[in-house]
């Protein structure tokens, strides 16, 4: 990591105000250069047609953290935002965000800089999570990894020989839109069908559970007024047959996708994070079986597939690290 960074007048290193803007939740925090999170906040992502509603939520949180920072004697030096979509890093603009359409083509960084008077960094959320896991998580000491985030959608981040791979157009590692079932007929928000995202995301788990209720009239999931991926997870942990079938199916498709990644990139490690990873024990066996069956045997034998360690903080930490690197 770079040795120098902007400092406050008393010599304290500044903080980065980091935001992980998800399709469901907006998480924010202040992070110091050593990777310590000082303050944090979690709220619902505004469901609004105007991008300004989301900007307002971010700036309100930033100003609250500014006041808290004064108590600690640390100032915020930059804002860094991780978003679920394709971004133009140089221009600070979100190019495509299926789960946050109001932000598409919106100059998010310019607007935040204008309102907060701080430099702004913008990055894809899964890329940020990958950086966070390499910096402070499961992938420490590794240089070539693939990180999958299983949340509202499925994101991916690829780090090759220590460098984040964004691709020519900044759209690399959209692993959630890798086709794993061309004949499945399940439509994806990207416009294609049979994508990994429609089988391995929280949204997919809810859909598969809801569709399976008729065949499992005794399932405890039939008693849920509001079905969520977390409730399906709890059902599986309790031995509910429908829930277990959902995670078996999810694990199979996830394993197919991972086997493809292994054969293509031959990474040291596959890191799996996001809220759905909390159900690890319910899908791990099915996932690993597909890897064994479909990946090259020599590669499958040495690959390390592990749960992410940073949890919901991965994207925040990665976003902060990017800002510190930019300031140095």
Summarize the entry for a quick read.
The chain has 328 residues and is of the alpha/beta class.
Order of helices and strands: EEEHEEEHEHEEEHHHHEHHEH
CATH superfamily of the largest domain: ATPase, nucleotide binding domain
Please tell me the overall pLDDT: 92
Assign the CATH topology of the largest domain.
Nucleotidyltransferase, domain 5
Number of alpha- plus pi-helical segments: 10
Distance between the termini: 9 Å
* Architecture per CATH nomenclature, i.e. the level-2 architecture of the largest domain: 2-Layer Sandwich
Task: Give a structural overview.
The protein has helices at residues 51-72, 108-116, 125-136, 197-200, 202-212, 229-237, 241-265, 280-294, 297-302, 314-327, and strands at residues 15-21, 25-31, 37-44, 76-83, 86-88, 93-96, 120-124, 145-150, 154-160, 163-164, 269-273, 304-307. The chain is α/β, with parallel strands linked by helices and 328 residues long. Helix 1 crosses helix 2. The radius of gyration is 20 Å and the shape is globular. The protein has two domains: 15-130, ATPase, nucleotide binding domain (Nucleotidyltransferase, domain 5); 140-308, 2-Layer Sandwich (Nucleotidyltransferase, domain 5). Strand 9 (154-160) and strand 10 form a beta hairpin. The chain has ten helices and twelve strands. Mean pLDDT is 92; it is low at 1-11. The relative contact order is 0.15. The protein has a five-stranded mixed sheet with strand order 3-2-1-4-7, with helices on both faces. A five-stranded mixed sheet has the order 10-9-8-11-12, sandwiched between helices.
């Amino acid at each position: 990591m770079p040795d120098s960074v902007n400092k406050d007048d008393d010599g304290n290193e500044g903080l980065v105000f980091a935001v992980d803007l998800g399709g469901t939740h907006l998480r924010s925090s202040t992070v110091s250069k050593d990777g310590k999170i000082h303050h944090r906040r979690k709220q619902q992502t505004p469901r609004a047609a105007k991008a300004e509603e989301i900007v307002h939520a971010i700036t309100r949180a930033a100003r609250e953290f500014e006041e808290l920072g004064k108590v600690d004697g640390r100032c915020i030096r930059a804002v860094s935002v991780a978003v679920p979509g394709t971004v133009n890093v140089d221009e600070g603009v979100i190019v495509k965000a299926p789960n946050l359409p109001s932000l598409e083509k919106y100059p998010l960084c310019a607007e935040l800089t204008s309102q907060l008077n701080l430099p702004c960094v913008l990055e894809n959320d899964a890329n940020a999570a990958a950086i966070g896991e390499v910096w402070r998580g499961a992938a420490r000491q590794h240089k070539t990894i693939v990180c999958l985030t299983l949340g509202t959608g499925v994101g991916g981040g690829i780090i090759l020989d220590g460098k984040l791979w964004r691709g020519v157009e900044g759209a690399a590692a959209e692993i959630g839109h890798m086709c794993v079932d061309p004949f499945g007929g399940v439509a994806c928000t990207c416009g294609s069908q049979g994508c990994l995202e429609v089988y391995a995301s929280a949204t997919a788990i809810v859909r598969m559970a809801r569709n399976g209720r008729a065949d499992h009239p005794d399932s405890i999931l039939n008693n849920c007024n509001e079905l969520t991926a977390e409730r399906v997870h709890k059902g599986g942990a309790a031995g509910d047959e429908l829930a277990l079938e959902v995670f078996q199916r999810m694990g199979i498709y996830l394993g197919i996708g991972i086997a493809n990644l292994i054969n293509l990139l031959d990474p040291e490690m596959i890191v799996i994070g996001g809220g759905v990873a909390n159900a690890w024990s319910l899908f791990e066996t099915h996932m690993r079986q597909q890897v064994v069956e479909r990946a090259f045997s020599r590669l499958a034998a040495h690959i390390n597939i592990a749960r992410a360690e940073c949890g919901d903080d991965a994207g925040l930490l990665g976003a902060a690290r990017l800002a510190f690197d930019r300031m140095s």
